[in-house]
Amino acid sequence: MARMVFCEVDQIEAEGLDFAPWPGEAGKRVFAHVGKPAWQRWLVHQTMLINENRLSPLNPEHRRFLEAEMLKFLFGGGAEKPSGYVPEAG
Q1: pTM (whole model) above 0.90
Q2: How does pLDDT run along the chain (90 residues), one tens digit per residue?
Q3: In DSSP terms, which residues pair with 4 in a beta bridge?
């Protein structure tokens, strides 16, 4: 049976993550309070941030930026798109 959490992002009971997706306290908080659907939406947003801002997850400064954006996205009422971002026509 799946581990269920009350997802603070979606305000519903949702299937929880299988493991803490980030190191430290931020990862523990996400593991305890974020469901899989909300986490998937963050991963899409994170990919956009990495691509648009040419970030490297290996760079400690970029990781700090991504962690701050992750916490804003999941717990701070959303996050903004990168400046100058124009979605692809589709």
Answers
A1: no
A2: 789 999 999 999 999 999 999 999 999 999 999 999 999 999 999 999 999 999 998 999 999 999 999 999 999 876 767 666 666 666
A3: 15
What are phi and psi for residue 13, nearest 5 degrees? Answer: -70, 130
Residue 54 gets the label, from left (phi > 0), alpha (psi -120 to 50) or beta, of left
Q: How far apart are CA 22 and CA 64, in angstroms?
A: 11
DSSP conformation class of 29: H
Task: Please enumerate, as own/partner, the contacts of 19-23 that have beta carbons within 8 Å and a separation of 24 or more.
Answer: 22/67, 22/70
CATH superfamily placement of domain 4-75: Fe(II) trafficking protein YggX (1.10.3880.10)
